[in-house]
Amino acid sequence: MFLDETIIEVISGKGGEGLCSFRREACVPNGGPDGGDGGKGGSVFFQVNEQYSTLLDMGNNRKYKAENGVKGGTSKCSGKYAEDLFVGVPAGTLVKDEEGRILADLTEPGQKWLAAQGGRGGMGNQHFASPRNQAPRKTIPPQLGERKILHLELKLMADVGLVGFPNAGKSSLVNKISSARPKIGDYPFTTLEPILGIVQMGARSFVIADIPGLIEGAAEGKGLGHQFLKHIERTHTLLFVIDGFEDDAYKKYVKLCKELAAFHPALAEKQRVIAVNKADIGVEKAVKDFKKHKLDVLVVSAVTGQGCKELVIALTNKLPALHQKGWH
Ligand SMILES: Nc1nc2c(ncn2[C@@H]2O[C@H](COP(=O)(O)OP(=O)(O)OP(=O)(O)O)[C@@H](O)[C@H]2O)c(=O)[nH]1
Ligand SMILES: [Mg+2]
Questions:
Q1: Which terminal CB of the chain, N or C, has fewer other CB atoms within 10 Å?
Q2: Ligand 1: which atom is nearest the Cα of residue 279?
Q3: Is 256:165 a contact under the CB 8 Å cutoff?
Q4: What is the number of the ligand 1 atom nearest to the C-alpha of 183?
């Protein structure tokens, strides 16, 4: 259900041509054949890169082509091998062919998979002299590169989980800051199952999970949200979404914390960001209450977009160090 997918084209390099040439030196009138072999074409490999968490991190390049091998030289010199091309993919990438057959399941950091084999270099005429033919013009042509269309699929794992009471505006925020378009409604329990969205910020991206609203007693099984708390157990950060228009917003936050701790103490210990939503209709009282309790909050409006950029930056700053490498 939560699939990130893309289709890419990989093309390996053609081998270099083998050369047909003959030794020419002042005192050797009929020099033998000395055409060198062509270099091998570059192969295309996929390699798991831990800095990537979604296929978007691969960038917009949908075509990966390795260089061709270089033609053989005179004096039996071989042409240069082309370098292999390594394409970074996130861990958990499944590679399929156009018919949907699984070709590779790339899970381990650093794991490599040969996506397209570089072509063998051609053979120069140096190899074909025989007693009957001292001046062969024969060469063996190089192998062409391979061209493949590959389908990449990634089962997304959420980095950030949204928690809040029904109607707080979780789905509206997800809608605003991510690629997902969950349903929004002015009634509780609009969201019935978790939805994942990708948030992109510059060259980096992360995954957020919108889950149904929690209600008091969720830990004992009331409402819907508790069934889905397990979906956010593996996230590293929780985004608390609070309806700041409500007078008892701070109290609701405390209740939410209690519910989470009752469900699983580890949830209460996760890093958190608190977003006081609905700034466009007035959240001053709520913000004051949070301040009184020395809690930092971000004031946002999912409707006008106020504070949403700051929210994305705050969430990005919570990404584990590994994710931040290569961040620019
Ligand atoms: N004025 C205003 N209304 C908002 C804002 N964010 C959400 N809403 C409204 O609040 C209502 C609930 O929004 P949702 O995004 O569906 O809330 P939710 O937290 O996902 O709700 P559940 O899925 O039921 O838990 C909708 O009518 C939204 O239009 C906001 O920033 N300002
Ligand atoms: Mg919702």
A1: C
A2: 31
A3: yes
A4: 16
* Residues constituting the chain: 328
CATH code, 120: 2.70.210.12
CA of 240 to the centre of ligand 2 (A): 13
124-159 residues labelled b (16+ CB within 10 A) or e (exposed): bbbebeeeeeeebeebbebbebbebebbbbbebbbb
**What is the whole-number distance in angstroms between the Cα of residue 55 and the centre of ligand 1?**
29
Rounded to the nearest angstrom, the distance between the alpha carbon of 172 and the centre of ligand 1 is 5
Which residue in 262, 275, 161 sits closest to 211, CA to CA?
161
Q: Which atom of ligand 1 is nearest to the CA of 188?
A: 24
Q: Which of 113, 136, 155 is the last residue of a domain?
A: 155
CA gap 123, 134 in Å, rounded: 17
Whether residue 287 sits in one domain with residue 176: yes
pTM of the model: 0.69
Write the pLDDT tens digit of every residue in 188-220. Answer: 888 887 888 899 888 778 889 998 888 777 767
Q: Tens of pLDDT along 43-62?
A: 999 999 988 878 877 777 78
**Phi then psi dihedrals of residue 182, to 5 deg:** -70, 160
The parent domain of residue 131 ranges over 1-155
Domain shared by 297 and 175, yes or no: yes
